[in-house]
Specification:
There is one protein chain. The chain is built from 15 helices and 16 strands. It is of the alpha+beta class. The protein has three domains: 127 residues, PAS domain (Beta-Lactamase, 2-Layer Sandwich), CATH 3.30.450; 108 residues, Beta-Lactamase, CATH 3.30.450.20; 191 residues, 2-Layer Sandwich (Alpha-Beta Plaits), CATH 3.30.70. Strands 12-13-11-14-15-16 form a six-stranded mixed sheet. The protein has a five-stranded antiparallel sheet with strand order 2-1-5-4-3. The chain has a five-stranded antiparallel sheet with strand order 7-6-10-9-8. A hairpin with a 2-residue loop joins strand 12 and strand 13.
Length: 489
């Protein structure tokens, strides 16, 4: 029988409107793939049109613009559709409007991620600068040039601001360093390089990465700086810095942390001012406030300020403290007869005699006018005579060979006490002063000023214990005088 199919078969072929199971599944997968691709294209198109930078799709062969992003309207004044089919060369000044040559030139600039400065003509005919990067897209069937153009005005404004700030930092008189969160220097201005005696090789990358702690001495003060910066983010104070040659110098240092809006550390700014000269001037001013300008000895303030250290030393060595109060006799007579310049010279001479008669660690001062004081430390078994006699001998030696028409005469009061501190200095000053005046009164009862001026010499009295009156100890008065024109005093 004709027309029958194989045994067991239906004998009917699939018609044109039917699909096998496998064919049906392939069609559904294809539709899903197309839908996904359309979604991806739409997403990419949205990104392309709304990009902040200008994006141009250019035919790599003809050099004509195929498509432009919406940013071209804000940046250049063109509508995106207006540029379609336009030769990119028309936007470039002095290009000769040669599309093919421009396309070749763009192909030669393909450096992904590298921006080159390019001027373009706006719709209004003005020139505007852009940073341009060029990428080549080639799928085998066609080649496209993707040009991304970024307006340089914001960048140049930012660069100008940075340059102004850098110039301000470099012009600053204070040495300034910008320090990274890892405590390494990222920038140092010219003043810092000069202060630390670094040459130009210390700039930029050569300075970058240097640990900040190499700029200063590691001590308690620098440790306090680091601790304060870590805990509080700021610090002001003096530290000892170290130049590249190892020389140390004091610096007033101010430091602050710079943080982002979210509180993250960005950097730290350190400012250093070399105060070496200021310290020197301060020391000079301090010395001037403690030193008598005429004689170079300490003044009363200097005696009290420096005397405390001498008293501490005496206590450590189990010694006693002694005070000599020296009064120059007849200074007014010298001034009246020979002039005040000569009187000043006598004061300088007495100061020199006192300085030469004491040890370096003892303190000599001019209390004022014609009065001097000497604070000493002494062994407990050393008698007062041994101390005062050095000054007595110095006066005798000067008078014997001065060649002047007068002789120096001084009255001396002496006392000693336990080195208990500054108050003890004041007490000894008062007691030795009283002893000196007792000596002076006794001297004037027997000798006129004319005789003192012609004969000279040194007379002294020791004031005994603090609770005794020196006037009750006349037997302790000692008088020493060299032979003079009028005989011994």
């Amino acid at each position: 029988m004709s027309g029958t199919g194989p045994k067991g078969g239906s004998g009917r072929a699939a018609g044109p409107g039917r699909r096998t199971g496998i064919g049906l599944e392939s069609e559904e997968a294809l539709r899903a793939r197309v839908a996904k691709l359309e979604e991806e294209v739409a997403r990419l198109d949205l990104i392309f049109r709304n990009a902040v930078d200008i994006i141009l799709m250019i035919d790599a062969t003809t050099g004509r613009i195929l498509r432009a992003s919406d940013a071209v309207t804000d940046r250049l004044g063109y509508e995106p559709g207006e540029l379609a089919g336009t030769c990119f060369a028309d936007l470039i000044p002095d290009s000769g409007r040669d599309c093919a040559r421009t396309a070749d030139s763009l192909s030669g600039l393909v450096l992904d991620g590298v921006f080159l400065e390019q001027s373009l003509v706006t719709a209004g005919g003005e020139l505007r600068d852009f940073d341009m990067t060029v990428s080549l897209v080639d799928n085998g069937s066609c080649s496209l040039i993707l040009a991304t153009l970024r307006d340089t005005r914001e960048r140049k404004t930012y660069e100008r601001e940075l340059q102004v700030r850098k110039s301000a930092l470099d012009s600053s008189l204070s040495a300034t360093a910008i320090v990274a969160p890892d405590w390494t220097v990222s920038y140092a201005n010219d003043a810092l390089l000069r202060t630390w005696m670094l040459d130009d090789r210390g700039r930029g990358d050569g300075m970058a990465g240097i640990p900040l702690e190499r700029l200063w001495k590691q001590d308690e003060r620098s440790g306090a700086l680091l601790e304060s910066m870590r805990s509080a983010g700021s610090w002001t104070g003096e530290i000892t810095c170290v130049r590249c040659d190892g020389q140390e110098f004091p610096a007033l240092t101010m430091a602050n942390s710079v943080r982002s809006d979210s509180g993250d550390a960005i950097c730290m700014v350190f400012s250093f001012v070399d105060i070496t000269e200021r310290r020197r001037l301060e020391e000079e001013l301090t010395a001037l406030s403690l030193i008598d300008s005429l004689t170079g000895l300490y003044n009363r303030r200097g005696l009290l300020a420096m005397g405390d250290e001498l008293m501490k030393s005496a206590r450590r060595n189990s010694e006693k403290a002694g005070m000599l109060f020296v009064d120059l006799d007849c200074l007014k007579l010298v001034n009246d007869r020979y002039g005040h310049d000569e009187g000043d010279e006598v004061l300088r001479t007495v100061a020199a005699l006192i300085r030469g008669a004491i040890r370096e660690k003892d303190l000599a001062c001019r209390i004022g006018g014609d009065e001097f004081a000497v604070l000493i430390s002494k062994k407990r078994d050393v008698p007062p005579d041994a101390i005062v006699s050095r000054l007595v001998e110095a006066v005798r030696g000067h008078n014997s060979g001065s060649g002047r028409p007068y002789r120096i005469s001084v009255s001396i009061g002496y006392t000693e006490d336990e080195p208990s501190g500054t108050e003890a200095i004041r007490v000894m000053l008062l007691r030795s002063d009283r002893a000196m005046y007792e000596t002076k009164r006794a001297k004037k009862r027997s000798t006129s000023d004319e005789e003192l001026l012609s004969e000279g010499g040194a007379t002294w009295l020791e004031c005994p214990a603090a609770d005794q009156d020196p006037a009750r100890a006349p037997a302790q008065t000692r008088q020493e005088a060299p032979p003079g024109p009028g005989g011994a005093s």
